[in-house]
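Budget justification note: compute hours in this period were largely spent on complex prediction jobs such as the one shown. Inputs:
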Amino acid sequence: MSKHSYVMIHQFNNREEGCQEECFHPDIVDRIRKEMPEEKLLEGLAQLFKVLGDNTRIRILNALYQTELCVCDLTSVLGMNQSAVSHQLRVLRDAKIVKSRKKGKNVLYSLDDSHISGLIQLGSEHVHEQ
Amino acid sequence: MSKHSYVMIHQFNNREEGCQEECFHPDIVDRIRKEMPEEKLLEGLAQLFKVLGDNTRIRILNALYQTELCVCDLTSVLGMNQSAVSHQLRVLRDAKIVKSRKKGKNVLYSLDDSHISGLIQLGSEHVHEQ
DNA sequence: TTATCATATGAGTAAACATTCATATGTAAT
DNA sequence: ATTACATATGAATGTTTACTCATATGATAA
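Corresponding output:
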């Protein structure tokens, strides 16, 4: 028995909490549960958006969208602490959203994913409509 | 003088923190700063992604992507507390990502933005490539 | 009206997170 | 080698946030 159907049956047998017949539709709930994407995918999605969902990181990405930059220049562009920038770069690197390469004493960062600019584009359209 | 140029000049005059000439490129930093999107837009973007960046909310959106649902059925689909679901629905409503309408004793929720499914689509592609 | 039900919401709590400070690592120039 | 510099990272801290519990609101049915 799949994890999904286990939880579903659990729901069916515990109707003291939740609403009754008029609004509780086992058939609909069942169908939707079956058509939900894999839990792994949903977690990955939430994780991706969580990484994008921070002011500092969004500004980093918008800067890198224009050109490859060293940490130092990024720090200047953002006007913030070098340590804070490095910490956020690590989060972006772990999420495979940016990549880095060494050049002399410096480390140059750039975007590592073709979807990111698309996400920012689409997201901007949503924001503009508010 | 714009806020941007103020911060920029501040940066130029405080080089004790940060890196020196070899990696600090005033011209590049200046250009990037000028071409950065409006701060308002960036904040809105980060806020949008932050709202999408939660496991529960992503699951709600994937359920609503299939059909309009009342809170009660959503609660069953997700297998969680009604209060928790309502709290998250409020976050999604505030962000204009879902909308609601009353029907009898129930409140039916549905997606309110054409961009959201596109964002989920694009995001999924990124996740699949990991 | 009164009782019942579906949803919303405020307060409290524990966990997650962004930033700062101090310092470590690694590279390059002298 | 020694010094200076660019970046990374661990620990500490203040803030944000997701969830739970209790209860409020609002609608329907008896």
